[in-house]
């Protein structure tokens, strides 16, 4: 959608207009501490190209509202997939269950003129046939790279969302959010052995960047290199050893093992390992962890969060000292802190909660090659796959999709089946080297919490960790 007012997707068919929305919010939320009427329209598409053929093509649109009334620590929330005066009135009946607020209503978010992305619709920007043709090009190019390529899977996905937030005091904020992604997976075969490599990229922009030959060829090269490396891999060693984490995407370990523990709700309730520790040393000197939603075009970025608060740069840990938490409006108010622009929700059908945007550790002064030279016996983890994390204590298990032995300070054989086991708070204290090669991931992160998923970004420099438990299969 280029040109025009995207808000017409929210106010159409005469079922609701902007003035009616303001009146409804004032009438039904005026006696609350906080809350909002959240309107959303979204369109999404996904293409799956596998084994030389288009296997799936999906297009979906949805619209609806969420009505939230917050009084004290109690939240009443109702939603429907119909944006109309009648539906909002029906939802408001549930608000009567809450006692009236006794304090002054929380002030509205501050205004912002920042914009982290454009408002054009990526779905209508490129014709359907061109998207299928790109998948075919990638498939053919990948197969021509190496005779060991046995299977190629390509997927393209995009979404476009229009939101509006209306508060009881007349505050109105809106945002239009594009998001695109390209994934390339390659299976390489040598004899009876088959191994997989993967690379993905994307962000809050139009498809044009993904259609650049340099971009999708790079995705092929990275995925193929990973698959071919894994064909040569040997069984991973096991035991506690020094671990070097590569830059960029390995920051997902930081996101899961540490980031969730810095979200306001867990700290307000005292269930995080970081609860009540502001001002204390929680990490090694030099460790600085940031959450920043105001990075143009990034997958985890937002111009405003889902409560209308502008995003920004929140310092969580500075030189090893705990400085702050990630806050939505409810937890910030109850903790006597300021919202940080981290109130996020999956859709209109979900209430917001504190969530990360782009969370990363800043770079240091160490030469990455020198960090590897410090390790007599350990592993170098270049890329991660899935993992499991206990948010309350940060205990994690992560599988490596590309990793190598380090022997006598040199990168050795690639290894298969390595898992990293530990806990986030301990890992922070064991950081012994911080590379000068900071990088963000390439735009593939999906964060889950409380049954909701949202796009997120991660990043870090090369890190030397002095002791992690490595799970492996070598005898």
Structure description:
The protein is globular. The mean pLDDT is 95. 20% of the residues lie in helices and 40% in strands. With 475 residues, the chain is an alpha+beta fold. A hairpin with a 2-residue loop joins strand 2 (53-71) and strand 3 (74-80). The longest helix is centred in the middle third of the chain and has 19 residues, at 213-231. The protein has helices at residues 18-29, 85-92, 122-125, 128-145, 213-231, 251-259, 264-268, 329-335, 368-373, 424-429; strands at 34-50, 53-71, 74-80, 149-166, 172-190, 193-203, 234-235, 239-245, 289-292, 313-318, 321-322, 343-344, 353-354, 358-361, 377-390, 395-407, 410-416, 419-423, 431-434, 439-440, 445-449, 452-460, 463-471. The chain contains ten helices and 23 strands.
Short account of what is shown:
The protein has 475 residues and is α+β, with helices and mostly antiparallel strands. It has helices at 18-29, 85-92, 122-125, 128-145, 213-231, 251-259, 264-268, 329-335, 368-373, 424-429; strands at 34-50, 53-71, 74-80, 149-166, 172-190, 193-203, 234-235, 239-245, 289-292, 313-318, 321-322, 343-344, 353-354, 358-361, 377-390, 395-407, 410-416, 419-423, 431-434, 439-440, 445-449, 452-460, 463-471.
Distance between the termini: 58 Å
Envelope shape: globular
> Strand count, sense and closure of the main sheet?
7 strands, mixed
By DSSP, the count of extended strands is: 23
Residue share in β-strands: 35-45%
- Measured on Cα atoms, how large is the radius of gyration? 24 Å
């Amino acid at each position: 959608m280029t040109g025009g007012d995207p808000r017409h997707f929210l106010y159409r068919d005469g079922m609701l207009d902007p003035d009616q929305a303001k009146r409804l919010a004032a009438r039904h939320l005026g006696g609350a501490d906080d809350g909002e009427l959240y309107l959303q329209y979204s369109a999404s598409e996904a293409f799956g190209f596998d084994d030389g053929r288009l296997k799936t093509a999906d297009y979906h649109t949805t619209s609806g509202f969420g009505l939230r009334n917050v009084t004290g620590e109690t939240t009443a929330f109702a939603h429907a997939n119909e944006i109309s005066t009648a539906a909002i009135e029906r939802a408001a009946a549930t608000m009567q269950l809450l006692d009236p607020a006794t304090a002054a209503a929380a002030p509205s978010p501050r205004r912002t003129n920042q914009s982290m992305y454009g408002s054009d619709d990526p779905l209508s920007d490129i014709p359907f046939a061109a998207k299928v043709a790109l998948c075919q090009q990638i498939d053919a190019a990948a197969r021509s790279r190496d005779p060991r390529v046995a299977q190629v899977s390509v997927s393209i996905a995009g979404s476009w969302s229009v939101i509006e937030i209306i508060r009881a005091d007349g505050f109105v904020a809106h945002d239009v959010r594009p998001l695109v992604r390209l994934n390339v997976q390659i299976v390489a075969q040598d004899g009876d052995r088959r191994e997989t490599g993967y690379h993905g990229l994307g962000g809050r922009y139009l498809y044009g960047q993904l259609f650049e030959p340099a971009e999708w060829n790079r995705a092929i090269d990275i995925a193929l290199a990973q698959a071919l490396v894994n064909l040569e891999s040997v069984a991973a060693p096991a035991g506690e050893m020094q671990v070097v984490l590569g830059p960029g995407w390995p920051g997902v370990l930081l996101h899961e093992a540490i980031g969730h523990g810095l979200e306001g709700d867990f700290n307000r309730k005292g269930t995080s390992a970081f609860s009540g520790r502001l001002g204390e040393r929680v990490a090694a000197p030099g460790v600085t962890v940031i959450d920043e939603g105001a990075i143009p075009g990034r997958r985890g970025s937002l111009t405003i969060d889902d409560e209308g608060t502008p995003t920004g740069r929140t310092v969580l840990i500075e030189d090893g000292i705990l400085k702050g938490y990630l806050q939505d409006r409810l937890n910030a108010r109850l903790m006597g802190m300021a919202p940080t622009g981290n109130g996020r929700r999956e859709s209109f059908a979900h209430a917001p909660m504190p969530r990360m945007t782009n969370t990363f550790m800043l770079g240091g002064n160490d030469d990455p090659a020198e960090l590897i030279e410090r390790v007599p016996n350990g592993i170098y983890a270049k890329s991660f796959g899935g993992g499991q994390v206990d948010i309350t204590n940060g205990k994690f298990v992560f599988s490596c999709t590309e990793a190598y032995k380090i022997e006598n300070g040199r990168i050795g054989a690639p290894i298969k089946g390595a898992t990293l086991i530990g806990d986030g708070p301990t890992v922070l204290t064991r950081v012994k080297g911080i590379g000068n090669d900071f990088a963000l991931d390439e735009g593939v992160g999906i964060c889950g919490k409380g049954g909701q998923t949202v796009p997120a970004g991660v990043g870090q420099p090369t890190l030397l960790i002095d002791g992690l438990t490595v799970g492996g299969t070598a005898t």
